[in-house]
Design goal:
Radius of gyration: 18 Å
Distance between the termini: 47 Å
Number of helices: 8
Number of strands: 0
Shape: globular
Structural class: mainly alpha
Number of domains: 1
Strand content: under 5%
Order of helices and strands: HHHHHHHH
Largest sheet: none
Length: about 160
Amino acid sequence: MINNFQEYLTLENIFLASNWGVIPFWLLILFSPNGNLSRFLVHSILIPLLLGSAYVFIVYKIYQDGNFLDGFGLYLGIENLYAVFSNENFLLIFWLHFLSISLFTGAWIARDSTRHLIPKFLTAISLIITYFTGPLGIFVYWLIRIFFAKKISLNE
């Protein structure tokens, strides 16, 4: 039975499932950031566990292929980063990493904006930017937050 399940766990299927799978959670963050469903699904450990399990599965596949240490080459220069990304396993791991961190950040922005009484429209703008560009969305939110919190805070 596990072998049948592994036939469906191709890199393409994991990529598609993770890409399409995070969209409902982003929509929950945008339209119902404090709802019960959002609290249960988005603001809990559930999504990081799902994305993390895909991450662990791909790491296991990399280990089985025998090129586990190749990933550490990315720290040696930009050419090595390019070489690491040419491997679909490593590329998908980094994509899952990006999706996880962006979703985590989006959930934090939603909670923090509620605490600082930031209008939903402005929060939505920073959430959409975070979805597409990650760090730029955090920066935009920080600028908005300065105005509403009436102070500049570099730490939480």
